[in-house]
Design goal:
Shape: rod-shaped
Strand content: under 5%
Order of helices and strands: HHHH
Number of helices: 4
Helix content: 55-70%
Structural class: mainly alpha
Radius of gyration: 31 Å
Number of strands: 0
Length: about 130
């Protein structure tokens, strides 16, 4: 929400500045055709204010709905945090278990064994061949 608000507020400042510059350019080409500068600027500020608040609300709602659907469909969850900490304990344990399983797998597969890395070719590891012989 804060990120979208800041981005939309910055965009709003650019829109108001552009409206002011365009009023001066149009007034120089055709004087006394446009409304007063204060009226023109007030309308621009009003439109930008509505845009910033509605845009912030819509982006926040969209992020909430995306996170909700990602929770059930397995998508990527958007999370912006302020504190950079290590992985949660459950993730750290899972990483440790995966590292142990990888280490065990590497010790069971003999280095240089043809077909050890490619199970789709139908080749069996050396240990499995010895057991069947």
């Amino acid at each position: 929400m804060v990120t979208s608000f800041l981005l939309l507020a910055g965009l709003g400042v650019l829109v108001v500045a552009t409206a002011g510059v365009s009023w001066f350019m149009l007034n120089a080409m055709a004087p006394d055709v446009l409304p007063a500068f204060s009226t023109f600027l007030a309308v621009a500020v009003g439109v930008v204010t509505v845009e910033v608040f509605l845009g912030t609300g819509l982006v926040t709602l969209g992020a909430f709905l995306y996170n909700l659907s990602a929770q059930y469909s397995g998508g990527v969850e958007i999370a912006v945090t302020e504190a950079l900490t290590g992985p949660p304990p459950a993730n750290a344990r899972a990483l440790l278990l995966m590292a142990r399983a990888r280490r065990r797998l590497r010790t069971h597969i003999a280095p240089g064994d043809p077909g050890a890395g490619d199970r789709s070719s139908g080749a069996r590891p050396a240990r499995a061949q010895r057991e069947t012989e």
